[in-house]
Amino acid sequence: YYNAKDAAVTSEVHETLLEEARERTPDGWLEEYYHTCMMPRHKFYLDMERVGFRVSEIDRERLLDKYMLLYEQVHSSTSALLGYELNVASNPQVTKCLYNDLKFPLRYARGKGPNTPYPALTADEETLVALIANHAKTNKQKQVAQNILDERKIRKTISTYILAKCDYDGRMRTSYNIVGAETDRTSTSNISAPIRPEKSMGLGFQ
Fold it and tell me: What pLDDT is attached to residue 1?
């Protein structure tokens, strides 16, 4: 009963959307576009999802070694400049470093300025770029802020891309959404439950 109802509702929604398309474009353009452009995408992207990409574990190890070395160099440089270890993924630690230790002018998150109920300092990429460009008066200020940016990018590359988990057959896959954006672009995301019995596999290729 449940499956039959699910199929029936899907068909009803389909007919309702077609009626809406006809109302929006009486000349039939939108309905034609749906049938000739949108519908054929399904098989095309489904085939790509099924095939995926082969992964070279040799190249993956080589890239991991390369980026781990870069990480160690940047992290060591920051520690030497500051005299202590800094966790660039910790906003409280980074904001304390920037505004207390390096004396950069305070920058607050949008909507959380000093006169709001819950003010919050920010140290996102946009803020760091602005501080380097406009307020870094010493080499230490400039280098530490740049190192924070670089280390975050390196860590992102390692965790999100190099160490991305392959599917069970050793191929890298993504999950496509053929109506992922209002501008008619597709979108991609990691594969997760219920498609796979794990929290996250593969990559958002786009």
Answer: 60
